[in-house]
# Entry
Amino acid sequence: KQEVTQIPAALSVPEGENLVLNCSFTDSAIYNLQWFRQDPGKGLTSLLLIQSSQREQTSGRLNASLDKSSGRSTLYIAASQPGDSATYLCAVRPTSGTYKYIFGTGTRLKVLA
Amino acid sequence: NAGVTQTPKFRILKIGQSMTLQCTQDMNHNYMYWYRQDPGMGLKLIYYSVGAGITDKGEVPNGYNVSRSTTEDFPLRLELAAPSQTSVYFCASSYSHTGTNYGYTFGSGTRLTVV
# Structure
């Protein structure tokens, strides 16, 4: 059974720091992996989608990498800002079974001004 | 382009009442999903649909029903509401075609409280 883990559960950093959020999954048979941002009381906003054949994706200050064989993905945030404060979730889409994503429980990030 | 639209945004139900959470998407996505999110528990799949007329259960389907009569709409029905159904409900959609799988687009959620 596919399981997705995100460590740490919470993280506080001073403004301007570069930081890395981690996501690990137990089964490497995935179609893709997606990173989301969720602001308090809001829905999920897609940040980056990495297909299984890709190693990384970039969008602005965000860079997501995927190492399928080791079951790991990282989300790198450069020059963090207070506006980056949110919960970040990763989700994988397995190749077997049904068409759903499996979600981690998220990392709650706070960037201090 | 509205994306995925959920209504209502908030609702308070009494135990035993019923209601329908509405979800509609205008992206011609073939797959649609309903998740619930409880504090610290992550997202749990309730039901999903791979196309009009086709639905299937997810991890936590008990107490819910769905239908998919059109590509655009995927309503979630709560029968006999219970306090355990207090949660935030998210609808999502995605598109898959001949081996290419695109990511999810989420609605903004419905916050439901059962008292």
About this structure: The radius of gyration of chain B is 14 Å. The interface with chain A takes residues 31, 33, 40-43, 45, 48, 50, 56, 58, 90, 92, 94, 96, 101-109, 111 of chain B (CB under 8 Å). The longest strand of chain B covers residues 42-51. The mean pLDDT of chain B is 91.
